[in-house]
Structures are given as C-alpha cells and as structure tokens.
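Re: that backbone. Tokens:
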C-alpha cells in the first residue's frame, strides 16, 4: 500500500476538499483505529471512517474498469445502483468483501467523499457538475 499520510494530512492539519458538485467542503486525514489505518472524513459535525486501503483498491478497480463510472453516492440505508462507485464500495465482491465505511450508520457516501481525494492524489478524474449523475 502506498503511503498517503503526507499527502492527506493529520488530525492537526487535515486536507481540505470539496464534494464533486462543489457544494460542500469537508476534511480528510489519516489516523489509526484498532491497528488499522483509516481515513477520517469530517463533514461539519459528522465524522465518517473509511478503511485506508480503499484508495489502492478503488484505483485498481477504476483502472480495470477503464471507462467513466457513475459515482452513485447514497446514504448507508439507501439501495445503490449496480455499476456505480458506491455500489462497489459496499459489495461483497470488492477486495474487503463488503463495506469500506467503518462507522455503523455512517458507512455510506463513499462515492461523495473518496473520489475527490482520489483526484487530489492524481489517481482519478472527477466531474464537478453543479448538478449531475453523481447521485443516481
């Protein structure tokens, strides 16, 4: 796994990002929980955790996919559409066999917050339409 700590930031100095449509700001930083490196995503007062390995796994999946892919961001309890980044991020067929989101009731919205980080790291391109197909 690549070391993204320096590029993503720390709790004291997190990386500032915007959602794909540019309507909301949030921060990301790397931390450790129970011996696992995690991404900590802070959106206002809401804190989400994602397994850090999602970066390499998503980059590999997108490379294999080879074409544009809908983000399909959804909350944890909403059904996802097959063929979207959000669906992949919670599929039993992904490398972790399920959710990359680690906080119960806050495991969704992977496709809203991780792709802009991927773009920042130079691992993906993200469309920044004011309104578009990112929530299908």
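Recovered sequence:
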């Amino acid at each position: 796994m690549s070391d993204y700590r320096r590029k993503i930031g720390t709790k004291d100095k997190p990386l500032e990002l915007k959602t794909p449509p540019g309507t909301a700001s949030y921060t990301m930083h790397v931390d450790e929980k129970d011996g696992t490196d995690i991404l900590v995503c802070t959106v206002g007062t809401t804190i989400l955790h994602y397994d850090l390995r999602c970066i390499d796994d998503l980059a590999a999946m997108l490379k294999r996919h080879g074409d544009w892919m809908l983000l399909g961001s959804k909350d944890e309890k909403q059904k996802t559409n097959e063929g979207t980044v959000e669906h992949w991020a919670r599929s039993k067929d992904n490398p972790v066999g399920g959710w990359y989101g680690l906080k119960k009731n806050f495991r969704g919205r992977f496709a809203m917050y991780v792709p802009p980080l991927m773009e920042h790291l130079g691992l993906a391109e993200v469309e920044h339409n004011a309104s578009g197909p990112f929530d299908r």
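The helical segments are 5-8, 54-65, 85-88, 110-120. The beta strands are 15-18, 25-33, 36-43, 46-51.
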